[in-house]
Specification:
It is built from 16 helices and eight strands. It is an alpha/beta fold. Among the domains are: 161 residues, no CATH class; 90 residues, Spore Coat Polysaccharide Biosynthesis Protein SpsA, Chain A (Alpha-Beta Complex), CATH 3.90.550. The chain has an eight-stranded mixed sheet, with helices on both faces. Helix 5 links the parallel strand 2 and strand 3. The longest helix is centred in the N-terminal third of the chain and has 31 residues. It is globular. The N and C termini lie far apart (54 Å).
Length: 439
């Protein structure tokens, strides 16, 4: 073991020494994705996060919080679910324990066949929820839109039926509506089962850095393009004005873009924490990531590709910048990365393993800096600190595995439109959707 560690250390050190010794032109050729794309974006993100953390709270927000404590408008919490018998009661109990006192909880069982209806009727009999049981499955969007029509609140929160929440989560969401132009607020989703195995630990790091940190910056810049379907809140009037949710997968990002195009802004509430179980098996995780990333092509490129046209600028310059950020650093970078590696191999065949190792170490260094900034801002620093030993593996997880899965998903959706056969949405709904959605 000591010999192996010594060999690896020597290989890593030699890789870095090789990078440092390269002439400037070869260094640029070898590192251009890192130097011109990843590094500027990471540095910008890190400085902005520090700036956000040092920004004093708005006086308008403090005044709104005081008014909220007196007025307490009704918040309707929508829980559309399919076969959530084992988790529904825990989610409802977590919502009933919220410090925000004026909630109605609406549960819609979307054609479940696991006995979820029995749990729903029992909870409704206690007066804890309003429950609706759909015999035929119509998909999450169908259940969510039905729940929206049944809701009485001026504010709508939507959650997955297998999530739990910090006690002040709804309060924290509501506080972000202090600006009248804010139509939607994204909650902070974290991994509940991080201790299960290596896969869940890597996902926990991903959620901390991409959601807890990345969305904080995006919201501050005014380019946040996603309110997760796992936990978010909306002004009811805004939801109804854009027609609610459209058929997914990817319906959460689709709705967020519709709200932005209607002139609304999107906020992020880092202290509004929702806990969810991440996939703990590689095949389940692969399928989830394929579904999520297919929707990037389906909606962001096909349906809303016009946002990339700067001369049109629908909804303003910020929507253009937000679209460019997503497409450049997710789609374009994923497509370019294998091309970059192939070019690197044929340009420097003998040095290729060392160059790849050196580049990976550079990405790891930026991840370490980003991690410690996230740790400084975390509401669970002791839990997050336990993930530090897994940070090197996280670099491999994000840099290699996830980037490969994204590329497969993009190619699959681009050529085969597989999102229209995704079992996340029932087949009969997908068939009807495809008739009216050319994208």
């Amino acid at each position: 073991m000591h010999a192996l560690l010594g060999s690896l250390t020597h290989f890593f050190v030699h890789s870095l020494e090789l990078l440092v010794s390269l002439p400037p032109d070869q260094l640029i050729t070898s590192l251009w994705p890192f130097l011109f794309l990843s590094l500027p974006r990471n540095l910008l993100t890190q400085f902005l996060v520090l700036g956000v953390a040092l920004t004093p709270e708005s006086r308008r927000k403090a005044i709104f919080r005081q008014k909220l404590a007196v007025r307490r408008p009704l918040v309707s919490v929508l829980l559309p679910g399919y076969n959530e018998r084992d988790t529904l009661e825990g989610t409802v109990l977590s919502l009933r324990d919220q410090s925000y006192p004026n909630l109605e909880i609406i549960v819609v069982s979307d054609g479940s066949d696991d006995g979820m209806d029995r749990i729903g009727h029992r909870l409704a009999g206690r007066g804890w929820i309003r429950f609706f049981n759909h015999k035929v499955r119509g998909g999450k969007v169908s259940a969510a839109n039905f729940a929206l029509q049944a809701a009485h609140g001026d504010y709508i929160a939507i959650c997955d039926a297998d999530t739990t929440f910090d006690r002040d989560a709804i309060w924290r969401l509501m506080e972000e509506f202090y600006r009248p132009e804010v139509m939607a607020v994204a909650g902070n989703v974290r991994v509940r089962n991080a201790k299960t195995n290596l896969l869940t630990r890597c996902q926990a790091l991903q959620y901390i850095l991409s959601i807890g940190l990345g969305r904080r910056v995006a919201a501050w810049l005014g380019i946040l393009f996603i309110v997760s379907g796992a936990f978010g809140a909306f002004r009811r009037s805004a939801l109804e004005a854009v027609g609610g949710w459209d058929t997914g997968p990817g319906e959460d990002a689709d709705l967020t873009i519709k709200l932005r195009l209607a002139g609304g802004q999107v906020a992020f509430a880092p202290a509004a924490v929702c806990m969810t179980d991440a996939p703990d098996r590689w095949w389940a995780f692969f399928r989830q990531q394929m579904r999520w990333n297919r929707s990037t092509v389906r909606f962001r490129l096909r349906k809303y590709g016009f946002l990339l046209l700067p001369w049109r600028r629908p909804g303003g310059t910020l929507n253009f910048l937000a679209a460019v950020d997503v497409i450049l650093f997710q789609v374009v970078f994923a497509v370019m990365f294998p091309i970059y590696l192939i070019g690197l191999f044929f340009t420097y065949p003998a040095l290729f393993p060392y160059l790849v190792c050196g580049v990976s170490l550079l990405y790891l260094c930026t991840s370490v800096v980003t991690y410690f900034i996230a740790l400084a801002l975390s509401e669970r620093p002791l839990d997050d600190l336990k993930l530090l030993p897994y940070l090197p593996l996280y670099g491999l997880f994000i840099g290699w595995y996830l980037r490969t899965v994204r590329l497969l998903a993009y190619l699959d959706e681009f050529f085969f439109r597989s999102s229209f056969t995704e079992p996340y949405v029932p087949a009969h709904v997908q068939r009807e959707t495809r008739k009216f959605q050319p994208w």
